[in-house]
Amino acid sequence: MRVAIAGAGAVGRSIAGELLENGHEVLLIDKAPTAISVERVPQAEWLLADACEITSLDEAALQRCNVVIAATGDDKVNLVVSLLAKTEYAVPRVVARVNNPKNEWLFNEAWGVDVAVSTPRLMSALVEEAVSVGDLVRLLRFSHGDANLVELTLPPESAIAGTAVGDVAWPQDTSLVTIIRGSRVLTPTAEETLEAGDELLFVAAQAREEQLEDLLSVRREEESAG
Q1: Can you give the pLDDT at residue 68?
Q2: What is the pTM of this model?
Q3: 100 — phi, psi (to 5°)?
Q4: Which phi and psi angles does 39 have, rounded to 5°?
Q5: Strands 137-142 and 45-48, how do they pair?
Q6: How far apart are CA 3 and CA 95, in angstroms?
Q7: What is the three-class DSSP state of 135?
């Protein structure tokens, strides 16, 4: 897979290193000469250019990329890169970094963004996830279909604890993608029984999040009566 990363700062270089370790081709683009540190990520391709200019993106052969990551520290730049990547080069997957949470509403399909990653929101979500049981935590937003990656740790009093995945009447527009049980990562099957303490990861439409949380955290009737 070929990946272009706009922004060769600490974030961009870190992403590049991870992708290279996983066997992908990576091109780092930055307009600041001081950011071009080939020795830090020698396996990557480097391009000194402005990623907001069509001529630069032509030189980068963006049409050959499977993924473009807009990882600069400037939200305006990330939006322009995302829009150009999607509309001018038809890049299948565009991931954009959100620096200011107030701008998160802009990072959507209209601007060519498939996945928006807000570091402040993600850090907040991870803190919530660490201390919350029974509360739905939004980890990541996908622009297409207005869907989010959400997590909930199943509380002992949940009505579906002890129920097989296939026997649960899940809300529409939700999909259970992973069960994390202790140190194990389980692929959900219809026969898999949900246990208290399971961390459940879903891709869910935002409109269904409240319904999903009610389903997962509702108390058993006899316990509520007590």
Answers
A1: 97
A2: 0.63
A3: -110, 115
A4: -65, -20
A5: unpaired
A6: 11
A7: coil
Q: Which residue has the tokens 């992908």?
A: 24
Q: How far apart are CA 191 and CA 184, in angstroms?
A: 17
- Residue 9 Cα distances to 15, 28, 31, 40, 95, angstroms: 10, 10, 11, 11, 16
Neighbours of 35 (CB within 10 A): 19
Side chain identity at residue 150, one-letter code: V
Interatomic CA distance for residues 146 and 155, integer angstroms: 27
Distance (Å, rounded) from C-alpha 93 to C-alpha 49?
21
* 3-state SS class at 208: helix
Quick one: which H or E segment has residue 57? helix 54-59
Span 66-88, pLDDT tens digits: 999 999 999 999 999 999 999 99
Q: What is the β-pairing status of strands 137-142 and 184-186?
A: unpaired
Q: How many CA atoms lie within 13 A of 207 on its CB side?
A: 4
Q: Report the distance separating Cα 28 and Cα 16, nearest Å.
A: 8
Q: Are strands 184-186 and 199-205 parallel, antiparallel or unpaired?
A: unpaired
Question: Which 3 state secondary structure label does DSSP give 175?
Answer: strand
Distance, in Å, from the CA atom of 37 to the CA atom of 47, rounded to the nearest integer, reads 11
Task: Give strand pairing partners of 48.
Answer: 30
CA distance 196 to 198: 6
